[in-house]
Amino acid sequence: MAQPSTEKKLDEHSSTQRNPKKGTFIAATKNKNNFIPSNVVQRDKKKPKNPKFISDWLKVAVPAILVGARQKSLSMQQVFNLIVQAYGEQGPNAKEKRPASRIIQSNGLYRLFNEHAAIRKKNNKTVVDEHGNPKLVLSPEEIKKLRKEGVHVEMLLQEEHSSKGGKKKKNSPTFVYESPVTSATHHIEVLKSRWHLDLKKQDKNLKQFATHLANSGYATAGKNTPNDRSDDYDTKLVSLTSQVKNQLLIYLASQNAYWNYRIKTTKKDISNLESRIKTISSHLEILAELEGIGEGHYLLEKQKETAERTLRTDIRKLNNWRHNKQIYQELQAAIIANFK
Fold first, then answer.
1. Which residues constitute the domain of residue 304?
2. Whole-prediction pTM value?
3. What are the b/e assignments for 7-41, b being 16+ CB within 10 Å?
4. Distance (Å, whole) CA 115 – CA 187
5. 328 and 192, same structural domain?
6. Where along the chain is composition biased (Basic and acidic residues) (predicted)?
7. Which residues contact 193 (CB under 8 A, 6 or more apart)?
8. Distance between CA atoms of 313 and 114, rounded to whole angstroms?
């Protein structure tokens, strides 16, 4: 099914939203284990620029996988495993003009993983409909429910390993999603329900994770060459470890520089707003003792309300920047500790 690639990857910049020109990051909510993606569209000139070799693909995949993994209370080891898996299955390819196009489809839907929907079998043969397409195990009611959750099944022409050896192209029912976060969370759920891999309870290292996927039937790569392990799914996935680790560490360092910049500028904005509010309050106290200046008093009150509203917004932003930085630093520390 899923077929990781060992080809050289490109690095650029993209987004986890439907508009690939906007950057996306992780915003904290009241529940520390529940994260939602939020757009940050302001691009000031003073913001540190990401190095040119930081992946477009990482900009899409890492926030989405972090969100999904944190929602499911997974360890940072499993975050790394999922990033490597997504990179191998749907990562940027050096031969493609648009490196991130493998996860953002032409119809605007996303696919971080090459997760296929289960199909019906009879006498070990695929059951097909009147159009020759395989029938799904999912019922119409289940498909309708998934659509409401932003999960869709599309027939996609893909290169699959044949049971007789070699590869051939065929239409496969494949999960696609309205957001990359939904792609990550649904994949985690399917790994547990269909492939018997509960990432919350089975905290495997990458090699164990890849081996489980290969042995469970999730992937077919290498099944027809039992004497050659070089083309097996797990072998190819593990071979990406160093490449993904190095690119990921560069990306995380870049993002941490961005959070530092945002924290610094937002703290400065908060300080200026607090001073402004204090000054306006002093003027209002003076005006309260004078007569005939109702309009001036009203204008200052409105200015104070605006400043206080902006202050509340900036405080929320500051908390988000700090929270994002902490999450990225946790992933960075886990990767460094894992590869000492």
1. 260-338
2. 0.76
3. eebbbbbbbbbeebeebbbbbbeeeeeebebbebe
4. 7
5. no
6. 1-15
7. none
8. 39
**Token code pair at residue 273:** 């707003």
Q: What is the spatial distance between Cα 150 and Cα 42, in angstroms, rounded to a whole number?
A: 28
Give the tokens for residue 291.
Answer: 């007569």
Q: Are 241 and 147 found together in one domain?
A: yes
Residues of the chain with pLDDT below 50 are 5-54, 94-95, 97-101
Distance, CA of 137 to CA of 307 (rounded, Å): 57
E strands along the chain, which residues? 23-28, 35-40, 121-122, 125-126, 151-161, 167-177
Instruction: Give domain status of residue 1, yes or no.
Output: no
User: Where does residue 44 rank: exposed (0-12), middle (13-18), buried (19+ CB within 10 A)?
Assistant: exposed
103 and 65 part of one domain:
yes
Last residue of a domain, one of 183, 217, 247: 247
Q: What is the pLDDT of residues 119-129, one digit of tens each?
A: 998 888 888 88
User: Is 288 a member of any domain?
Assistant: yes
